[in-house]
């Protein structure tokens, strides 16, 4: 089996997903305007100048402190209710065409992102891909975030998750494809036989040139439904699923099923 692994932020969508969902979270009173602006500024700096592991760890810990005590079902409901308005206008047309190309070839398509599963999984469903690999936060017995991470889908941990899924599902990684914009995803790109840099940052562009990797530039974000009509049942399923979570736990069951497929690495945090 052949697979294609797509990073999310600035590869499939035109901005960082966490920043994109800032306004709905601010409207719900979960973050302040100052927090949202600070997050957007940090993402801009990372995009322009890159970030090392220490900087990313500091950013992650700061974000986790903010979310401590949040109700997971409320976050999931906010994402579900605003997904189309937030994400649809910023999906890269070129990425969508490439996803559909891989699907036409019979390849299994994954979205893989350091963003939270509460954002990445509904988005993967909405895009019609096969599965998602995303960061997972620890949840206490009351369904609230503890401020700790169960699995951080970043850097080498992305590659480990890909390798474990490949082993479970019989995916030939040397025949498979990966797409990303960031040097932090170098292990992910190195894990496959066909790596491609998409809108690469400075360091990834340099390495891609040295290694002769394909480089693509995506710059046409368009409304998703204007390109490929989605089955109404899928959109309805997402909305219904979100409301069920808010009522009592459908998303938790989905999270538990997917968690069983990935290797946990609690010592990495």
Fold and architecture overview:
This protein has 269 residues and is α/β, with parallel strands linked by helices. The chain contains 13 helices and seven strands. It has helices spanning 17-20, 22-27, 33-49, 53-67, 72-87, 93-104, 117-127, 156-169, 186-190, 202-211, 224-227, 232-247, 250-259, and strands at residues 3-7, 108-116, 131-139, 145-151, 177-180, 194-198, 214-216. Strands 4-3-2-1-5-6-7 form a seven-stranded mixed β-sheet. Strand 5 (177-180), helix 9 (186-190) and strand 6 form a beta-alpha-beta unit.
Offer a concise description of the structure:
The protein is of the alpha/beta class.
Separate helix tally:
13
**Within the largest sheet, what's the order of strands?**
4-3-2-1-5-6-7
Outline the low-pLDDT stretches.
228-269
Q: Provide the number of structural domains.
A: 1
Mean pLDDT over the full residue set? 75
CA-atom Rg in angstroms: 18 Å
Strand percent estimate: 15-25%
- Shape by Cα distribution: globular
Text of the CATH class: Alpha Beta
How many strand units?
7
Q: Alpha-carbon distance between the termini?
A: 32 Å
Structural class, judged by helices and strands? Answer: alpha/beta
Biggest β-sheet strands, sense, barrel: 7 strands, mixed
The CATH topology is Rossmann fold
Q: Secondary-structure element order, as H and E?
A: EHHHHHHEHEEHEHEHEHHH
